[in-house]
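Can't attach files on this board, so I'm pasting raw text. These are the components:
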Amino acid sequence: MSGDRGPRRRRRPEEAERAILAAARAFLEERPFREMTVEGVMVRTGLSRPAFYAYFRDRYDLITRLLEGIGGLLFALDWRWLSGGADGGEAREVLVDALRAGSQTFVDYGPVLRAIADAAGYDARVEEVYRYGLIERLVVAVGSRISRDVEAGISPGELDPEQTARALVLMTERYLLDAFGRPERRPSRRERAVVFGTLEEIWVRTLYGRA
Amino acid sequence: MSGDRGPRRRRRPEEAERAILAAARAFLEERPFREMTVEGVMVRTGLSRPAFYAYFRDRYDLITRLLEGIGGLLFALDWRWLSGGADGGEAREVLVDALRAGSQTFVDYGPVLRAIADAAGYDARVEEVYRYGLIERLVVAVGSRISRDVEAGISPGELDPEQTARALVLMTERYLLDAFGRPERRPSRRERAVVFGTLEEIWVRTLYGRA
DNA sequence: CCTGTTATTGACATTACGTCAATAGACACG
DNA sequence: CGTGTCTATTGACGTAATGTCAATAACAGG
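---
Top answer:
Structure tokens for the assembled complex are below.
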């Protein structure tokens, strides 16, 4: 008897919505976004496919909500960057700290973040949220920090603060996705250390010169 | 009279194939890959949609062929990197040279390269060709160059050659796509100079220290 | 035990895909 | 010039996934 889903069950909307989000996350831990279909997510919830549309406009809306859940963690990086004072030694420490936190977020939520990044290529709305709500936001934060450090004489004046910020942020995003964004491949502690060390080296050498 | 495509016309296979590739390129100069449908490409050729499948397996096969057309240009960067001697001053010049050539390729073929990068998120075969046939190839080339420079004492020993290469290559790819990959936005000479300067600054400071 | 609300779903319309047998250009040959 | 052959081309079909909606049935409150 295939398709026997048992008797109907009625949940509170909020509960059903959470179940769908959880199912999507679980799905993306196993398979990439390109294979994620509405049906494929909904079978994991015990609900029918049309039920999905009672809670989400489409799968891109779903992805956007997943991003909201993680977004908060990355927003925390904003003020870490901005809060640091502009005196020599501290600037580097603040940077390393923020990089470590960012890397950890990618270790924890790699596949989901990867899915969001992929979905940005599929849908204009997701691209909007991802690019302007996350990436661009980080670029602005990092850029203003670089700008301050340049004015304070800690960082070299040849750097264009905003462009340098954009290049470094994009590097960090793609490099971390490359390292931690594949489903079914938990990185070892050693791998994580090498990845983090590489990012630190490039950021520090670019902004503050040799260690 | 919609749909009137006039009398059938018969072309030589090679000619039809070139027409399709050209139509795809033209399409991607105007609209992103996510909107590219087989029908949308074929109307520009005067052929019917099914004709497409006589020449390409699907639109990802088409994208792969487009990449082949540009790939040669980027392969040239391989040996630029490797051919350079390992004496101090020259290493930097070779790097700057290769960066400039790479940037120019993105200026010339930005939207197509962007489409290929997007398509890599859609299809496993395209991802394979893009990641392993292009990105990874550049990573290896750059990595072995860095390795040589580290051994020669030109670059700092803290760098992990392969990982540093990967981070820098990914940065360059995404940053150039960001700058030159949007359809309908030809970059000004000034913009190009800023983008190129930023890349140069990060690469040089990372690998060879302050200018 | 009813009854109204609403979460849930079966069934439908749509779009893009990939295939294939049938059609009709163009060239070769008489 | 016919005329026949080859094959580029296409109409028509089956499939997969999407998004919608009227009908259904689970649960809460009386």
